[in-house]
Design the sequence.
């Protein structure tokens, strides 16, 4: 069993993932950029139809202003969400992870969770973290900085064993 105490990913380690769930990521992110695509399309059409009657730089200025407001809004939304998450009773608690042949177990004193290897679609071994893809909305993150060399080696061996045994992502049929 691999046990890791005080797991609390940094914002960088908890960054959103962009691969692993196929088209779900791009379908979900489309509404974020749809206004920008529409604005650019409308702007190009308006500038081409209006010709020289529009002041130079108007479209570029509006595009830059819209991008700036959008970026500041996203920043404000992330900060607001993080502040509210910190206020939650479990918001500032570190997690204790236990990983073995049965799966992953996490607890922080107020809540706990168990995930069988059959429920993990895949494990992504990234530069600074391990990502356990369970569902598009739930992907536990284990920062590598918390693992010593032996734990890192044991975890990679365990993941290889579970993958080779056909249990990783097997679902209920893989019992």
Sequence:
């Amino acid at each position: 069993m691999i046990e890791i105490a005080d797991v609390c990913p940094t914002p960088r380690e908890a960054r959103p993932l962009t691969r692993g769930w196929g088209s779900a990521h791009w379908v979900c992110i489309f509404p974020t950029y749809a206004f920008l695509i529409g604005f650019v399309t409308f702007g190009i059409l308006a500038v081409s139809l209006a010709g020289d009657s529009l002041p130079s730089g108007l479209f570029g200025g509006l595009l830059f202003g819209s991008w700036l407001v959008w970026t500041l809004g996203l920043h404000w939304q992330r900060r607001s969400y993080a502040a509210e998450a910190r206020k939650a009773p479990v918001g500032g608690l570190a997690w204790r992870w236990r990983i073995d042949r049965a799966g992953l177990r996490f607890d922080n004193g107020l809540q706990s969770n168990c995930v069988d290897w059959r429920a993990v679609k895949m494990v992504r071994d990234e530069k600074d973290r391990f990502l356990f893809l369970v569902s598009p909305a739930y992907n536990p993150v284990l920062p590598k900085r918390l693992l010593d060399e032996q734990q890192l080696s044991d975890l990679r061996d365990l993941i290889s064993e579970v993958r080779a045994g056909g249990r990783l992502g097997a679902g209920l049929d893989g019992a």
In short: The two ends are 21 Å apart (CA to CA).
